[in-house]
Each structure stands twice: as structure tokens, then as C-alpha cells.
Amino acid sequence: MADFSTQARPYAKAVFELARDGKSFAEWGETLSALSALVSAPEVANLIGHPALTRAQLGGVLTQALEGKLSAQAVAFARLLVENGRVQALPAIAAEFEQLRAQAEARIDVEITSAAEVPEAQRQQLAAAIGKRLQRQVDISWNTNADLIAGAMIRAGDLIIDGSVRGELDRLQTALTH
Q1: Alpha carbon distance 59, 79 (integer Å)
Q2: How far apart are CA 69 and CA 66, in angstroms?
Q3: What domains are there in the chain, each with its CATH number?
Q4: What is the pLDDT at residue 133?
Q5: Which of 32, 73, 80, 136 has the most other CB atoms within 10 Å of its CB?
Q6: H or E stretch at 73
Q7: Residue 117, number of CB atoms within 10 A of its CB
Q8: What is the pLDDT of residues 78-91, one digit of tens each?
Q9: Are 37 and 65 in contact (CB under 8 A)?
Q10: What is the pLDDT of residue 64?
Q11: What phi and psi, each to the nearest 5 degrees, are found at residue 142?
């Protein structure tokens, strides 16, 4: 799959500014998610770039499919992407938009994987501590993985904290073999 992040950045920034000015982050997030799902659907994905279909025809097909389901701005945005040959970048645009949105809302997605189920009281304490450390509102997804043996791994964007016994054993093995 091609990497569309460079193409996506200016479009995501434009939609972000539009959403910020209109105080409609949630609506645009849902819209971009719906558009991404639409262009990723096999029926539509096969139409994109089809040699027998012009950009104008593809724009017409998408406009018809979206009419009444999304706002006029969203339909116009989809047409713009088709006209500029960037419709395939929609999933990357949506991802970039969500990063900009999370930054503006001082929010971060955190994934915590523990060796065993964590009691609710400890979950709340850990969420508060991570939020304080990162100075952001945290949205935590909890997972369990017995392979960690004990402890937990925390992933927040580029930050990874490995407090698991498995991680410590791996670091010890690396130190001993080098």
C-alpha cells in the first residue's frame, strides 16, 4: 500500500482549520472516517484509477453516493480530492486530522498492556498518573498479554515504557550477549 502521508498533510490541515473555526472536530472526524471507509470499500476502490472512468465521472459517482448522507462541505471536499487525484489519500488524511485534533484537544491515546487484568482502582490511579506526566487527557485502551510474565507496557504516541518482566529479561539477554 502506498504511503500518502505527504499528500494528506495539507488536506488534513485545511480540514482541521475548517473544523477548528466551526468548532466541529467531532463531526469532521466522523465525516473523514466515513469517507475513508467508503474509498476503502472494494466496490469503490476498484473504481478509483479505473482507466475507463474519468475523474469527473468518479466525482459524479461519489457525489451521488454521498448526497444526503454527508454535509455539502464534505461532499465538496470529496469532489476536490477526486479532481486533484488525491481520493486514495483519504485514510491518511483522516489519520493526520485525528493527530492534529488530539494535539489541539490536549488528548492522547494510550495503550496499556499488562500481564494480568488490572483492578479498576489501579486503572484509575494509573490513568491519572499518566495524564499528569504527559499533561494531557488520556484515552486508554487496556489489553492483557500473559507473555509479559508480570508488569506492563505503556505506549503513548512515540513514548514506550516497558515495565514488564519479559522486557527486563530481553534487556538482560542483550546485555549478556554483547
Answers
A1: 5
A2: 5
A3: 5-102 (1.10.520.20), 107-177 (3.40.30)
A4: 87
A5: 32
A6: helix 72-83
A7: 9
A8: 889 888 888 888 99
A9: no
A10: 80
A11: -105, 135
